[in-house]
Amino acid sequence: MSLASEELRYVYAVCRPLDAPLAADLTGIGGEPPRQLAHEGLVAVVGPVPERDFAEEPLRRHLEDLDWLSDTARAHQRVIAALTSVTCPLPLRLGTVFRDDSGVRTMLQEGADRFGRVLERIDGCVEWGVKVHLESEEPARERNTGAAAQDKPLSGRDYLRQRRSRRTAQEESRQRAEAFAQSLHEKLSERADDSRLHAPQDSALSKAPGVNILNAAYLVPRVHSEEFVELVDHTKDEEHDSAGLRVELTGPWAAYSFTADDPEPGAQATERSR
């Protein structure tokens, strides 16, 4: 079997024809440089990958190998990031593979209408992510309560009173955080062409401290990105800092959250490093 027959075509993204070639030193999966495969007004950005790793069965096994998955995702994202700097790509799912160029062209042909609609919607835009976290102060409270208990034993009534007071304070803090997040989302949505509310992240999985109150994505024209960033930064100078709230801004990204043809509200974005 020849080397060529052992290679499959990995597709990173679909976009409109580029005005200039990709950077000569850009590499994707396996250190291979991506190339453009054009078909009737669309371009698939592809790269060769070995069949031994990306055929259906070995790929399924690899997706359970976190080290392999992490390396592959970084290489995938590297190509998407390079494309985002020069155009507005429609990123495809990690592990999108075809047998040969003919299979890629068939994908472009069959998906032409959908690709065209999505590319028109995201044209000239990038995605910004905004999260609001309510910082947890529970450990400090517990330490203070524990020290006080050692100094002076609490009666059953005092203990119950403290628990009610703590629970009430937590509920009020959560309500203030949700009100702030809702207000911020409304302000940012007015400055964006579109927005998506994603499910809050589990702090145990994300490793981010505190409770995730807002997890949103915004489709923002490149020409208005500076204003959008300034609006988010301005919130960091407001009173919410003293209330234990943290605002996190990420981007600009390719429009991962806006590539579905008919997205459902709150649909989950493609996973990526942030």
Automatic annotation (TrEMBL):
The keyword tRNA-binding does not apply. Residues 137-175 are annotated as: Disordered. Its main location: other. The keyword Phosphoprotein does not apply. Keywords: Gas vesicle. It comes from the Bacteria. It is found in: Gas vesicle. Belongs to the gas vesicle GvpF/GvpL family. This is GvpL/GvpF family gas vesicle protein. It comes from Streptomyces huasconensis.
